[in-house]
Amino acid sequence: MRILLVASAFNSLSQRVFAELRERGHTMAVHLGPDPEELRAAVRAHAPDLLLAPMLKSVIPPDVWSAHTCLVVHPGPPGDRGPSALDWAIHEGAEHWGVTVLQADEVMDGGPVWASARCPVPPVGKSDLYRNEVADAALEAVLLAVERFASRTYVPQPQYGRGWRVPDHTRPYFDQSLRRVDWAADPTATVVRKLRAAHSQPGVLDELLGGEWYLHGGHPEDGLRGVPGELLATRAGAVCRATVDGAVWIPELRPRRRPGGPATFKLPAVLALGGLLPRLPEVPAPPTLPPGRRTWTDLDYREQGPVGFLRFSFPGGAMSTSHCRRLLDAYRSACDRPTSVLVLGGGRDFFSNGIHLNVIEAAADPAEESWRNINAIDDLVAAVLTTTDRLVVAALGGNAAAGGVMLALAADDVWCRAGVLLNPHYRLMGLYGSEYWTYTLPRRVGEAAARRLTEQALPVTAEAALRLGLVDRVVPSTPGDFGAAVGGLAVSLATSGRLQERIAAKKAARERDEARRPLAAYRAAELERMRRNFFGPGEPYHALRSAFVRKQPVSGAPPQLR
Q1: Which residues, in sequence order, are CB contacts of 316 under 8 Å at separation 6+?
Q2: Can you tell me the distance from the alpha carbon of 195 to that of 189, in angstroms, rounded to the nearest whole number?
Q3: What is the rounded distance in angstroms from the CA atom of residue 317 to the CA atom of residue 399?
Q4: Which of 187, 247, 378, 522 is the most exposed place for a label (fewest CB within 10 A)?
Q5: In this predicted model, what pLDDT tens digit does every residue of 318-340 receive, in sequence order?
Q6: How many beta carbons lie within 10 A of that of residue 24, not counting itself?
Q7: What is the pTM of this model?
Q8: Half-sphere exposure of 551 (CA within 13 A, CB side)
């Protein structure tokens, strides 16, 4: 079928739906933006059999939905209506939720239902939930709805009448009055729930150190105490703030936008506060958490027999210069341990999206910070590539993009969860790319496929990545079970009879490749191009980065589809 995907942004869910339907043989086109006339023009241009809206904040015009079947993905179960479905689900402590695919009509979220799917609601932030459990349910419901539409025999179920047993549950927009934290009264569990319901957008508006800030992310801390509302400590760029019965770690802050001022963006909390921050102790996370201990860390290491597990989880998957250096230090320490397999990653959300564009945007000299950041991540990738005394597995429980994909490709094996989406390209940010991609990508998929992936700049599903050779294993697990599944597979790998043979073969292959062309030559050639991107006059990178960081809307088709 010819399907026009209509969305407010080409976000993770829109990309996943696009890629999955395209793989199933449908002819896909994409239109972004709220302008009714532009949408009408797109419909005339593409003459679709079906309009599909995976993520839409605006209303489809009546003349469009009355002339064409328009299916809308609502992130709530049948009967749920309103613009803040996931916010309410987390706020009310729902243990299970759902996604509904319904037909657009005159009642918002009230049209006939084509399909629905259920999903659990684990104790995670809204954006993590959206990209994982909700996205899995949404894809299940979308594929069923499209199949039913294509059959031309299915009659969607109206949300009224004798056959409809679900009450209408319409709820208002979840505004800041509902999110506000009462530091003098709210226990830690309540504060964390409010923060999770606002992560990563819109954040919780609060007053801090004489200014107004949006708080992004929240993790309980049970070992630190203080006056409720008081800042207690810092850790890896996050701040710890006291509650009435404990404390919470807040990784990121965003200043409230001033009237007439530019859009603001999230930064690591310590960096955002800058000189406003009083002198606080830097409290490192304990190397090993005892059972029942609640605290936050973005890096941790553990061992299970002959396997080491180095987990990292940076907000939004972005890796600043500091993140890269800390991860490199942790990686080197892990390589000092007597293990034969080292698993890198294994968390449930983003693996990595490469360099930290927000931190770069905030720097006094963004070009210089870009250069520092790309060199720091190159150092990390080089360390992985030159590890020859054990096997390294990159375990992707969540999406990866740009340099984050190339970091994974430095490993010997790449395992990813079945719902993962990969964007192995840099072009949309006006960058050539580094992280040794000119070495790792062609050796996995071949020169022609590497060129196609980086130039077309389209998302790749886990199954397509497996067929291409971009990944070695797709793990069919839920987001929450991915870590345990990877653990079992890694132990099996470490205890297999061929392990030492594989380690010897990789060492020999690395030596042959180094003799043919040193890794330093790949890095130098890539960085020569990147230096021009960062420092050259007329290069688009700085404008594209600023627009991305400040979430400036895109209208029409996404750049990679034009």
Answers
A1: 200, 266, 350, 353, 358
A2: 10
A3: 8
A4: 187
A5: 999 999 999 999 999 999 999 99
A6: 12
A7: 0.97
A8: 10
- Angle at CA 293, nearest 5°, toward 289 and 297? 55
Amino acid at 407: L
How many helices (DSSP H) and strands (DSSP E) are in the chain?
A: 20, 25
C-alpha 326/C-alpha 551 separation (Å) is 28
Residue showing tokens 């979840």: 174
CB 3 within 8 A of CB 52: yes
Name the helix (H) or strand (E) containing 45. helix 36-46
pLDDT at 291: 81
Peptide bond into 228 cis (omega under 30): no
Query: Strand 96-103 to strand 70-74: parallel, antiparallel, or no bridges (unpaired)?
Result: antiparallel
Q: CA-CA distance, 312 to 242, in Å (whole number)?
A: 25
CB 60 within 8 A of CB 39: yes
Residues 519 and 527: their CA atoms lie apart, in Å, by 12
Report the candidate in 190, 73, 235 with the shortest Cα–Cα distance to residue 138.
73
Write out pLDDT tens, residues 178-222: 999 999 999 999 999 999 999 989 999 999 999 999 999 999 999
- In our burial notation (b when 16+ CB lie closer than 10 A, e otherwise), range 118-150 reads ebebeebbbbbbbbbbbbbbbbbbbbbbbebbe
Residue 132 DSSP one-character state:
I
C-alpha closest to that of 119 among 68, 76, 149: 76
Please count the other Cβ atoms lying within 10 Å of the Cβ belonging to residue 288: 10
Distance CA 506, CA 131 (A): 35
- DSSP secondary structure, 182-235, as one string: -TTT--HHHHHHHHHHTTTTT-EEEEETTEEEEEE--EEESS---STT-EEEEE
Q: How far apart are CA 1 and CA 22, in angstroms?
A: 10
Q: Give the pairing of strands 400-401 and 391-396.
A: unpaired
SS3 411: coil
3-state DSSP of 31-43: EECCCHHHHHHHH
How many C-alpha atoms does 302 have within 13 Å on its Cβ side?
A: 13
Look-up: residue for tokens 């003349």? 63
Q: Which residues contact 551 (CB under 8 A, 6 or more apart)?
A: 263, 265
Q: Is 426 exposed, middle or buried (0-12, 13-18, 19+ CB in 10 A)?
A: buried
Whole-number pLDDT of residue 290: 77
Sign (positive or negative) of CA dihedral 94, 82, 196, 298: positive
DSSP string computed for 312-362: E--GGG-B-HHHHHHHHHHHHHHHTSS-SEEEEE--SS--B-SB-HHHHHH
- Dist. CA 139–CA 12, nearest whole Å: 12
What span, in angstroms and rounded, lies between the C-alpha atoms of 490 and 415? 10
